[in-house]
Description:
The structure is a single chain. It is built from 11 helices and 12 strands. It is α/β, with parallel strands linked by helices. The strands form 2 sheets. Strands 1, 2, 3, 4, 5, 8, 9, 10, 11 and 12 form a 10-stranded mixed beta sheet that branches. It has a two-stranded antiparallel ribbon with strand order 6-7. A hairpin with a 2-residue loop joins strand 6 (132-133) and strand 7 (136-137).
Amino acid sequence: MDMRIRPRRLRGNEKIRRMVRETRMDKSSLIYPLFVMEGENKREEIPSMPGQYRYTLDILPEKLSQLADAGVGSVMLFGIPDHKDEVGSGAYAEEGIVQKALRRAKIQVPDLYYITDVCMCEYTSHGHCGVLCGQDVDNDKTLELLAKTALSHVQAGADMVAPSDMMDGRVLAIRETLDQAGYAGTPIMSYAVKYASAFYGPFREAADSAPAFGDRKTYQMDFHNSREGVKEALLDVEEGADIVMVKPAMSFLDMVTRVRDMVDVPVAAYSVSGEYAMVKAAARKGWIDEDRIVCEMAASVYRAGAQIYLTYYAEELARFMDEGRIG
Length: 327
């Protein structure tokens, strides 16, 4: 048979397959989300996220060192406070849980790059991402507290801040506050395209951040919309975002590609708690090959155009890259 073009020629063995691979990854692009809590000598497994834990400050450095040894260079810190109130004061308190974690981590495991989630939901008694006006979140009053929170994180040692609240104008408010305080060099990674998603369910258990009433659909995005996501990303870049994120990852890979094509800053994607929980549950039933699924999910995110990947499987992926199973 006369066939001049035979695509299988480039699939004949592992060496040629790796040579012509279109999507390449390395460990420096991985970010591991990590939950810190008050108390001592505790490592609490999150029931809906088997293998993921909440760490007290004295146990935290052990996990951070483990990540560093695996080659995962960046972590995203989420705080779980003992006390909550209407205005989420623990988010920006000098002795807040994230602030204390940063000061300790920067001394004990200084080689990691520390990113902090900037939001109010873990710290408010009502579980919403800002200050309430009746039953609604007051956008503009919340901006001041978000900026205050971001500044407190940077002063405690954060290398980057990542606002996840989805308030209009929060990137600009944070950028101006950081610049005025002398932190013009601190980057912002905005949760720019964050959908109101059912995939967040396990996270809300992990961070004890479920809203006490209603939902977050007045500030997080409608998952039917894509053009709106592009608008959000462009607005955040205009306001000073250095990196923009799409969240969740798996069901919104089209948005990763659309945003990548429209912005001139790096694009991140967050493989969220629900994605992790589904894989873990199916793997425990013996229905899937967990390692292979994790590799395929990661490759799909990078193939879609993300340069940065936030995932609870970061440590495993670093090992898979070392082993040549992905990358």
